[in-house]
Q: What sequence folds into this?
């Protein structure tokens, strides 16, 4: 589904990604693991169109992605949740969610006189909204609240909910567990499995390599901008090098 | 009905006030001032959309005000075009101009963007002065016809008050609707974070240009009404100070507050027409001071601050009862 071929990315003066190739098949969770500065986030930024590729190509199905702007990619079904979940703090939870459906929901451009735009929402948007509320009941309770006033975990849920509103085919997630309590991390990861089972493809970057590999189908290890090891999640969990460098010795 | 009245009485009062204000027995002698407040509100609303909602700075808004004014003046006086059609043509030309400018300068951000808009404002002002075969040069043009509908000529300030405020209210309502629609959500998102807005599928660059064009068209309409009101136009009315004053109005009213624009325009106009007359050239210092004080102590704007204070005060008194 997503095919990254011989991609090199220069971020400022540093060549952050060198000649990296990997694929993400439909309906898979694929994880990139690696230490800080290995080029994982740069890789995602480049796929999502925030940093230009120096060379190589990124394809979604048969669509060439390099050269497209981020908002064009959203329309193609590629959604990106950057590190630190970029929500719109002063806006309400509902506004944040509706913004997620921005690229394909069409309200009248000027609303009508008054706040009617709220009610003439398209049925498909409404369906997505209900799906998100079903996944995260807490968002439904707090839909009038400002996004910035939610707790860290709720904000992460909102960030994922916002992305789901755009009916994505593939989601790129950068460190969804960053700064969350361990129990919440588990919830988030469980949710990713659920989304995968619903047919959404996920490319995940996660500091906690063990947790990521446990839910992933396949994984790639990035070192200094290169992809050095690849394999199924099970293989990587058993790989000596991976255990030594990223998992610690307790994994057996 | 009573319920409705209880909730909306403030609108009713505002509507009645708006209608009776220009009569001689009320505030009739201030009609000219009130017309200018209306005109400035139109420009300020555009600035609020641009600065408060998309977070883009424009220090040259007077240029678009001026382009609208000059095109209306030249077309209707020199070429004898019907003033209404002249107004429409002026708005289209200003919009096109803003589009081509915006396309170029919105690659810039922050201070650089402010400098670019400032530069364009000054260039346009110089053009007004130098293209004297069209614009009358530094002396300006006079004898511009009044607007009229059928045989009804807007020849007194009393009539023009209603004309200007009709347009002002229309622009306020349009802006209000933009803010509350999907477009408005997108605008607020861009103000929050451009990258995040882009990542959920908003074409940020295009949006900025669109709003810029819209604000320019608002300014142009105000400019057209301005020349048909004064029947005189000169470059001095659209210089850098005029742009700064417009920014002051937007800031006082609250950048992210559509209705605050009226308040901002009113305060600034009353200040400059009634209170600062003796200051001469020094009035720019006063505006600078106001701008600084408001920015430091109430960055959300005087109007919004007042509204909040009243809400808190009402909540307190309600508790006592």
A:
């Amino acid at each position: 589904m997503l095919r990254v071929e011989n991609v090199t990315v220069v971020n400022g003066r540093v060549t952050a990604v060198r000649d990296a190739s990997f694929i993400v098949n439909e309906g898979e969770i694929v994880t990139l693991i690696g230490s800080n500065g290995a080029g994982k986030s740069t890789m995602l930024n480049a796929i999502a169109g925030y940093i230009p590729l120096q060379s190589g190509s990124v394809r979604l199905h048969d669509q060439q992605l390099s050269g497209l702007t981020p908002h064009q990619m959203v329309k193609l079904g590629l959604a990106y949740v950057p590190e630190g979940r970029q929500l719109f703090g002063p806006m309400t939870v509902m506004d944040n969610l509706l913004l997620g459906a921005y690229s394909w929901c069409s309200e009248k451009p000027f609303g009508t006189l008054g706040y009617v735009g709220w009610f003439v929402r398209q049925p498909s948007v409404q369906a997505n909204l209900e799906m998100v509320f079903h996944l995260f009941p807490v968002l439904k309770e707090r839909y009038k609240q400002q996004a910035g006033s939610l707790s860290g975990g709720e904000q992460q849920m909102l960030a994922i909910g916002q992305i789901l509103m755009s009916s994505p085919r593939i989601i790129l997630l950068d460190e969804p567990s960053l700064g969350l309590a361990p129990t919440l991390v588990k919830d988030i990861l469980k949710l990713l499995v659920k989304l995968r089972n619903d047919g959404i493809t996920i490319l995940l970057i996660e500091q906690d390599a063990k947790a990521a590999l446990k839910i992933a189908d396949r994984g790639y290890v990035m070192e200094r901008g290169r992809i050095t090891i690849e394999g199924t999640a099970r293989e990587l969990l058993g790989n000596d090098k991976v255990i030594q460098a990223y998992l610690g010795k307790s994994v057996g | 009905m009573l319920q409705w009245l209880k909730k909306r009485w403030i609108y009713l009062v505002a509507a009645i006030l708006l209608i009776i204000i220009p009569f001689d027995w009320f505030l009739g002698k201030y009609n000219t001032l009130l017309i200018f407040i209306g005109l400035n509100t139109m420009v300020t609303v555009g600035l609020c959309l641009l600065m408060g909602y998309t977070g883009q700075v424009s220090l040259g808004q007077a240029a678009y005000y001026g382009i609208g004014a000059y095109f209306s003046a030249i077309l209707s006086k020199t070429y004898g075009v019907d003033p209404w059609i002249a107004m429409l043509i002026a708005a289209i030309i200003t919009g096109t101009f803003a589009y081509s400018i915006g396309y170029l300068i919105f690659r810039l951000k922050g201070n650089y963007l402010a400098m670019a808009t400032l530069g364009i404002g000054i260039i346009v002002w110089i053009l007004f002065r130098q293209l004297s075969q069209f614009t009358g040069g530094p002396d300006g043009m006079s004898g511009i016809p009044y607007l009229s509908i059928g045989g009804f000529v807007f020849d007194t300030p009393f009539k023009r008050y209603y004309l200007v405020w009709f347009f002002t209210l229309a622009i306020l309502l349009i802006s209000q609707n933009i803010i509350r629609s999907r477009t408005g959500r997108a605008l607020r998102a861009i103000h929050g974070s451009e990258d995040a807005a882009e990542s959920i599928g908003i074409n940020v660059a295009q949006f900025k240009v669109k709003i810029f064009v819209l604000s320019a068209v608002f300014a142009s309409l105000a400019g057209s009404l301005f020349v048909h009101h004064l029947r005189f136009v000169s470059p001095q009315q659209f210089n850098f100070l005029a742009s700064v004053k417009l920014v002051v109005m937007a800031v006082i009213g609250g950048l992210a507050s559509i209705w605050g624009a009226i308040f901002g325009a009113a305060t600034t106009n009353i200040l400059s027409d009634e209170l600062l007359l003796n200051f001469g050239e020094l009035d720019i210092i006063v505006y600078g001071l106001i701008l600084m004080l408001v920015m430091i102590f109430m960055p959300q704007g005087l109007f919004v601050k007042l509204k909040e204070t009243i809400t808190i005060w009402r909540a307190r008194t309600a508790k006592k009862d």
